[in-house]
């Protein structure tokens, strides 16, 4: 699978859709989210909580 980066088409699409809904992405949260997606692990609510709380995958 292709890695997601800040410059990737997929990230730009999500960012654009969020701005259309008047949302913004915190750069730190965006980086953590990309790390999770790029890790290849199944994304679960527990994984999301752990990353947001501890900053580790």
Automatic annotation (TrEMBL):
GO terms assigned for molecular function: hydrolase activity
Keyword terms: Hydrolase
Source species, domain of life: Bacteria
Protein known as: Zn-dependent hydrolase
Gene source species: Lysinibacillus halotolerans
């Amino acid at each position: 699978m292709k890695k997601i980066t800040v410059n990737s088409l997929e990230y730009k699409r999500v960012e654009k859709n969020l701005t259309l809904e008047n949302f913004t992405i915190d750069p730190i949260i965006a980086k953590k989210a990309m790390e999770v997606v790029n890790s290849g692990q199944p994304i679960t609510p527990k994984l999301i909580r752990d990353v947001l709380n501890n900053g580790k995958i």
